[in-house]
Amino acid sequence: MISPAGTGSVVVEKEVLEFADQQGLRVREFPMMTISTSPAPKTSGVQFVHFETKFMDYVATQHPLVFLGVPSLGFLYGAVLEAVLHTSFTGPILATLARFALSLTSSPLFLASVALSIGSAILFSQKKILSKIKDPNQEIARL
Q1: How many domains in the chain?
Q2: pLDDT exceeds 80 at position 119
Q3: CA 56: distance to chain centroid?
Q4: Is 88 within a domain?
Q5: Residues 6+ apart with CB under 8 A from 106
Q6: Tell me, what's the pLDDT at 83?
Q7: Selection from 132, 134, 87 nearest residue 106 by Cα
Q8: Has residue 59 been placed in a domain?
Q9: d(CA 67, CA 65)
């Protein structure tokens, strides 16, 4: 019933969710369990998590604006300063503004600023959406 007509056996998750919504079906999310036929390796009982993994999880889930947004503003400031220093503010105003804009947008600092600001905005919005979900195993209405 869940497989849309004409899709065969390979179905993209987005298509399945859209089809279920069209059919008026409710969708639940369940955690996946790994089933292994080989015996589990023996460990000392202590699992070591790498510092980088903990730090990136902290950055991405807890404080994306601090760790990505603030450097983004710093890079933007550096790019504007660099563009001001490279632009000669003599001559016609329109030509000066064009040189300033070209200098600014071609700067690697400006491109890094744009990339970091987009990343921080995406991670911050995901953080806000996830904070509204109290239990991931509950039925989730369309966001």
Answers
A1: 1
A2: yes
A3: 12
A4: yes
A5: none
A6: 85
A7: 87
A8: yes
A9: 6
Q: Which residues contact 82 (CB under 8 A, 6 or more apart)?
A: 103, 107, 109
The residue segments making up the domain with residue 91 are: 49-131
Rg, C-alpha atoms of the chain: 25
Instruction: Give this prediction's pTM.
Output: 0.52
Residue 89 lies in a domain: yes
In a domain, 105, yes or no: yes
Render the chain in DSSP notation, one character per residue: --SPTT-TT---HHHHHHHHHHTT------------SSPPPP--S-----HHHHHHHHHHHT-HIIIIIHHHHHHHHHHHHHHHHHS---S-HHHHHHHHHHHHHT-HHHHHHHHHHHHHHHHHHHHHHHHH-S-TTS-----
Say which residue the tokens 């991931």 belong to.
136
Q: What angle do CA 39, 45, 46 make, to 5 degrees?
A: 125
pLDDT in tens, 92-110: 777 788 888 888 888 888 8
The mean pLDDT value of the chain amounts to 74
List pLDDT tens digits, range 123-140. Answer: 888 877 777 765 555 544
Which pLDDT score is estimated for 44? 54
